[in-house]
Specification:
Elements lengths: L2 H26 L3 H18 L6 H10 L2 H6 L3 H16 L2 H20 L17 H16 L4 H16 L3 E2 L2 E2 L2 H19 L1
Helix pairs in contact: 1-5, 1-6, 2-5, 5-6, 5-9, 6-7, 6-8, 6-9, 7-8, 8-9
Length: 198
């Protein structure tokens, strides 16, 4: 196993574990949004401090779970955007929609990576860097994850729209909008609109 592949697997596992923790907190702890808010502020401070000093525990996670380009430009970027995306949907939507959106982010995004080598002959028509198989499988995983919290018809809509959004490389100020922020926002918005229409 190459070093890059090992890093990607570790990151996917950390992604899933982080998402499960946020889901459980959202279900069982009523002040989760404040916990995430303060955690986000603390994380941003630690990110900036990481440019100056090596913080023992934070340094370990950055070295073992963070992409090099993020360590150089924005330490902890993926996790911070994960928290920010989760916090946003918790603030904007009812709890069941927020939970479905976070569940999609937690499980569907890593699923896309784990199946990225399946059917490499057939590319995702929206994003040639990804396979059609990984795109379809991520939709299936997103649907299953969301179905624990919302009706199946809404879960299908959220799964399709969120994974379509994940396929696009959306840029803001010359930088790509992080999937960890985009996916839950698109999922939550699509569910909310679908519930108004159907």
């Amino acid at each position: 196993m190459t070093q890059e592949k090992s890093l990607r697997i570790r990151r996917a596992i950390l992604h899933i574990v982080s998402g499960i923790i946020i889901l459980l907190l959202t279900i069982y702890y009523k002040d989760t949004r404040w916990l995430l808010f303060y955690g986000l502020i603390l994380g941003i401070i630690l990110s900036f401090l990481s440019f100056i000093i090596k913080i023992p525990v934070i340094g370990f996670f950055l070295e073992n779970f963070e992409l090099k380009r993020h360590r150089d430009e924005f330490p902890g970027k993926s996790l911070l955007f994960f928290v920010a995306g989760s916090l946003l949907v918790i603030k904007l939507f009812p709890q069941n929609i927020a939970l479905a959106s976070i569940a999609i982010l937690t499980f569907a995004d890593p699923a896309s990576y784990f199946f990225s080598r399946v059917g490499r002959k057939y590319k995702n028509p929206i994003n040639n860097n990804k396979t059609l198989a990984s795109f379809l499988f991520s939709i299936l995983v997103a649907f299953i994850a969301a179905s624990f919290f919302i009706e199946a018809k809404y879960a299908v809509i959220a799964a399709i729209f969120s994974m379509l959004a994940e396929s696009f490389n959306i840029k803001i100020w010359e930088d790509h909008l992080d999937d960890n922020f985009l996916i839950p926002l698109v999922a939550g918005t699509s569910i909310y609109i679908a519930q108004m229409v159907f």
